[in-house]
Amino acid sequence: MRRFRHSTGNETVSTVDISPLIDVVFLLLIFFIVTTVFVKETGVEISKPRAASSDDLNKQAILIAVTSEGRVWHGGREIGMDGVRAVVATLLEEDAETPVVIRADANAATEATVKVIDSAKLAGAQSVSLATEK
Fold it and tell me: Which of 33, 42, 51, 79 would give a disulfide with 65, using CB separation of 3.0 to 4.6 Å?
C-alpha cells in the first residue's frame, strides 16, 4: 500500500490507499459465492435407515421427507400425502430428468412410504429412490 503525504501549509496529512484491499475483499467474496454448494433440504430431521448397498446421488434431486408419524415434508413445509403429486409434478416441469429422493424415517410406516413413492411416480418421476445411510 502506498502512503501519500499532502502538505497544507504547516501540517502534513498522511493517507493510506485502500483500493487494493477492497479489490482483494471483493475477489474473496466472489470466490466464496461461486464455490458455495446450494443444497435444498427437506426441512425436518429424519433418522434414515441403514443399507449396505447405498450409492451416492450425483445430481440435484427433489427431496421429500416422511416422518415417523407419517407426515410428509418438502422444502421446510408440510405438504401432506395429497400434496406430493402436485409438488413433484411442478418441480418436474423444470427438468423431467430430476430424480426424486424419499427420506423416510427408519420408524415410518411402510404404507406411508409406499404411498409417497406411488404419488411421485404418478406425477411423472422417472427415478424414485429411498435415502439411506451406509
Answer: 42
